[in-house]
Design goal:
373 residues, alpha+beta, Rossmann fold, 5-stranded antiparallel sheet, 21% helix, binds adenosine-5'-triphosphate, Molybdate ABC transporter ATPase, molybdenum, ATP hydrolysis activity, molybdate ion transmembrane transporter activity
Length: 373
């Protein structure tokens, strides 16, 4: 998929009186037409504006939209919003309040371009886990249920692309955790690309296959989630959230220690046992603050994961007392370099003390690995 937009908002269009900054969106984004692409950025960076451009709800000065093989906008054509095959899910569910959940779904079925597919309907209701609430009015649904019905409604339009604008923002932490597995099921069971706006790193870690970082209307990084989070010179301050997101498979359980081993390529990481069976695909997040560096591995240590690594890059953090160090992990067996990276965040003083330089061979000590999927 390819999106390119240039849009300018003058000062007098600002919705907030007294806010005298203009806003310009200048974005050129190419992402695969599958999986979840998370548009990540601070408040006001232009995430919603970008989605609205894709949906045809904004009139940019320049716009190009290609979704799979369909051109929705270029120099010659600009399909109106209702002709773009999208499903749109907003922060607050936009269900019709006077209609039951089921009637809301039926409304989408009538509006869909493609013929009604009863099997798909039943499947979607199961995927979203809403069979038991279909007769209720939206006011009698929980926030999470309302959003699940809204997502189901968007999917019943049989869109080519699903746009989700912070769909969990109005839910509390517990409800968010309830709904995330449903989003994962959409991802794994339905073959539909999703553009997902978020400013929450935990959602990115859990859902994103690709990420686009927006800052003040500009794209400052884009690409595969593992690749982008292993970069240490991002102009965006991720603070305590800096760290990598890795994908691996469960290869061993150590029940006596309640631990399991996850293989990421040829790298093995031990973490708390989640009970997932062998060969399950999992995602793990290794935060930079949980990775320290040692020059040798002679001394005994409480650290579970100590992996030989090469220093591949060093950058001063946004907090200038700290540095970020990119480490390429090597396998224990043959010491050959693997393409798995982690990031370590240590004080500038420690880096100076260890005299760290690019190319140094060190030990990455990973104190904690979190399972996110
Ligand atoms: N309807 C509008 N008219 C004029 N300016 C707008 C309008 N909506 C948003 N803006 C401005 O455009 C800029 C980008 O806003 P946008 O809503 O796209 O950001 P965002 O990244 O989605 O923010 P948030 O995370 O807070 O929702 C901001 O400066 C905002 O004030």
């Amino acid at each position: 998929m390819h999106f390119r937009f240039r849009l300018e908002r003058s000062q007098n269009q600002k919705p907030v009186p007294g806010d005298d900054r203009g806003f310009a969106l200048d974005a050129d984004i190419t992402v695969p037409g599958r999986g979840v692409t998370v548009i990540f950025g601070a408040s006001g960076s232009g995430k919603t504006t970008l989605l609205r451009c894709v949906a045809g709800l904004e009139q940019p000065k320049f716009g190009y939209v290609r979704v799979l093989e369909h051109i929705w906008q270029d120099d010659n054509v600009s399909l109106p919003a209702h002709k773009r095959a999208i499903g749109y899910v907003f922060q607050e569910s936009s269900l019709f309040p006077f209609m039951s959940a089921k009637a809301n779904l039926n409304y989408a079925i009538k509006r869909a371009d493609a013929p009604f597919n009863p099997e798909q309907y039943e499947h979607l209701i199961d995927v979203m886990g809403i069979r038991g609430v279909l007769d209720r009015l939206p006011a009698r649904l929980s926030g999470g249920e309302r959003q699940r019905v809204a997502i189901c409604r968007a999917l019943l339009l049989q869109p080519k692309l699903l746009l989700m604008d912070e769909p969990l923002a109005s839910l509390d932490t517990a409800r968010k955790q309830d709904i995330l597995p449903y989003l994962e099921r959409i991802k794994s069971e339905l073959n539909i690309p999703i553009l997902y706006v978020s400013h929450a790193l935990d959602e990115v870690a859990r859902l994103a296959d690709h990420v686009v970082f927006l800052d003040n209307g500009s794209v400052i990084a884009q690409g595969d989630v593992t690749d982008v989070f292993s970069r240490i010179k991002l102009p965006m301050n991720l603070g305590e959230g800096a760290g990598v997101i890795l994908q691996g498979i469960v290869i061993e359980h150590a029940p006596e220690w309640e631990l399991m081993c996850v293989a990421i390529g040829s790298i093995k990481l031990w973490l708390k046992d989640s009970g997932d069976p062998l060969q399950t695909k999992v995602r793990v997040r290794v935060l930079a603050r949980d990775v320290s560096i040692a020059m040798g591995c002679e001394t005994k240590s409480s650290i579970l994961n100590r992996i030989p690594a090469e220093v591949t890059d060093i950058a001063v953090d946004h907090d200038s007392s700290m540095v970020l160090i990119q480490l390429r992990l090597t396998t224990r067996d043959d010491q050959s370099f693997d393409s798995t990276y982690v990031v370590s965040r240590v004080t500038r003083r420690s880096a100076h003390h260890l005299d760290l330089k690019k190319g140094d061979c060190v030990w990455a000590q990973v104190k904690s690995v979190a399972l996110v999927h």
